[in-house]
Amino acid sequence: KKPLFTSRLFSVVWDEAHCVSKWAGFRPEYKEAGRLRFLIPRFIPFVIVSATLPP
């Protein structure tokens, strides 16, 4: 939430989102990925994508 950081940030794009649940076992920080949405100002686009997400 630092103004200098967010003033330079224009979007957050995370590809291979399915890895968050798969890798959370050995990368516990991945479980906290959802918190990013609350730390980044709402006017900054936040996109999470993956070609292999289940329906």
UniProtKB/TrEMBL annotation:
DEAD/DEAH-box helicase domain boundaries: 7-54
InterPro entries in UniProt: DEAD/DEAH_box_helicase_dom, P-loop_NTPase
TM stretches of this protein: none
Pfam entry (one): DEAD
Domain of life according to the entry: Eukaryota
A GO MF label: nucleic acid binding
Protein name (Swiss-Prot/TrEMBL): DEAD/DEAH-box helicase domain-containing protein
Source organism: Mycena albidolilacea
